[in-house]
Amino acid sequence: MSSWLVRPEGSPQAIRLASPEEVLAGIREGHWLPSDEVQGPGENQWRSIDTHPQLADSVAEWLTPPRLQEDETHLDMNPLIDVCLVLLIFFILTITYASLERAIDVPPLNPDKKGPAQVNYKDIKDQVFVVTARMDGNRPVVRIEKQEVPIHQIAKEMKRIIDSTGRREMVLDVDKAVPWGIVTAILDAAKGNGVRNILNNRRG
């Protein structure tokens, strides 16, 4: 009956096993190391288990970790996050720039610091049209040249005044109680109609 001898590396004592399968089983169960020595039937030299011709391939296959299959359903979110951040910065800059464009031009202060420069309406009445905004109870009322105008008609009525009179400067007379959204609508309409200058008189 053929037998296999296995011993720890360099040890004088060996264990007899019936087959190479038992040697491999001992490696898998942790009884032997790949560097321990083995002799097959009819052999008179000791070899390490991982170099024996009948055992080397099996040992190498067992020692090689299984290859992990790539999860094809995995979605890399990093590029998507980068794009979202770029869009967020773009929208912030766009909104900031649009807000600056809506800035109201006000007359500069006098050198003597006694207050804003006074403009006589009689001197500029042929160059400007007047837009007023007041609160009537809880309802904002907008008038262009004393004519009440619905909020959604401000731009249209402003265009009619500009086309009929040629006046492209505006005096904006607004109470502080008027919501800022109404003021913004007036300023947007002026910008859309090419108003060159806005003289602001915000009361309150």
TrEMBL record:
InterPro entries to which the protein is assigned, alphabetical: ExbD
Q: Which GO terms describe its molecular function?
A: transmembrane transporter activity
Q: Which Pfam families match?
A: ExbD
Where it sits in the cell: the answer is: Cell membrane
Output the Gene Ontology cellular-component terms: plasma membrane
- Which GO biological process entries does UniProt record here? protein transport
Q: Which domain of life is it from?
A: Bacteria
What residue ranges are annotated as transmembrane? Answer: 80-100
Q: What name goes with this protein?
A: Biopolymer transporter ExbD
At the highest ranks, the source species' classification is:
Bacteria, Pseudomonadati, Planctomycetota, Planctomycetia, Gemmatales
